[in-house]
Amino acid sequence: MSRRTEEAYVYWIRRFVRFSGLRHPSELGSAEVRRFLSHLVEERHLSAATQQQALSSVLFLYRYVLNRPLAALGQLPRGRVPTTLPVVLTRDEVSRVL
Fold it and tell me: In terms of C-beta density within 10 A (0-12 exposed, 13-18 middle, 19 or more buried), how is residue 90 classed?
């Protein structure tokens, strides 16, 4: 992994541990991970990409550091997906705008 990815993973793992009341991740399970990710979306209003990075960080922690893959997390609330504007307008669209 790149250095920036490692830094981001450490950041999200620290946030997860703090959110969980400074309990060791080995004491936590899928329910706590689900609650953390839901908190990020519902209360912190983070984007879907940021939520995905947090999820990847926590999954990495459990799979490769603790050697304890998490059970299925089920449906998670998804963060907001930014809307993009079209790059080019067609002639009809320009006519309608004018």
Answer: exposed
* d(C-alpha 59, C-alpha 66), whole Å: 10
Q: CA 18 to CA 25: how far, in whole Å?
A: 10
DSSP letters, the chain, are --HHHHHHHHHHHHHHHHHTTT--GGG--HHHHHHHHHHHHHTT--BHHHHHHHHHHHHHIIIIISS-PPPP----PPPB------SS--HHHHHHH-
Specify the amino acid at residue 23.
R
Asked if residues 39 and 84 have their Cβ atoms less than 8 Å apart, the reply is no
In terms of pTM, does the model score above 0.85?
A: no
Residue 96 has phi, psi (to 5 degrees) of -65, -35
Q: Closest by alpha carbon to 53, among 10, 18, 21?
A: 10
Interval 29-70: pLDDT, tens = 888 988 998 898 888 888 888 888 998 899 899 889 999 887
